[in-house]
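Tutorial, part two.
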Amino acid sequence: MKNFGLIGAAGYVAPRHLRAIRDTGNQLLAATDPRDSVGVLDAYFPEAKFFTEIERFDRHLEKLRRQTPRQCVQYLSICSPSYLHDAHVRLALRLRAHAICEKPLVINPWNVDALGELEAETDSRVYTVLQLRVHPALARLKQRLEVGGGSRANVRLTYVTSRGPWYHVSWKGQEQKSGGVTINIGIHYFD
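Running the prediction step on this input gives:
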């Protein structure tokens, strides 16, 4: 059994991470989110500590790290807004924990190198969620392209989804925080 922490417990993606942690026989020790609408924790890990301030969450995980190895967080699931991913990955690596991060890992490509250096310094790894790799329609497309002998193919991708007015007010509608459509949505298809 592995110990997990989770950043972004009130977000859209968090229940998927909570379910995966539970379904793989692991435990969540602590979670954080600036919003306190995290009743979902009760369905998965009612005993998990919860923090609305990242600094207190960090302090708690550091305290656990300094105790026995059985009590420290070994994995940190990162479900926070995209523009915070690299900072939260750095937090995981400083804690000597592996990071499991939603995409995109970084908004600006030049920030990847620093994460690689931290990985090497800490012997911890960064894992990116690649959920579309196993999507049935995309797996069929990949198989069709491979049957073509590996030659280049022109593919036209159309992504249509409705978004209410909330989208443009949230971090997702702000290019400096989401990376724009190419980074926020397109990254899943570049995989």
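The mean pLDDT is 90. In part three we will examine how such features are distributed along the chain.
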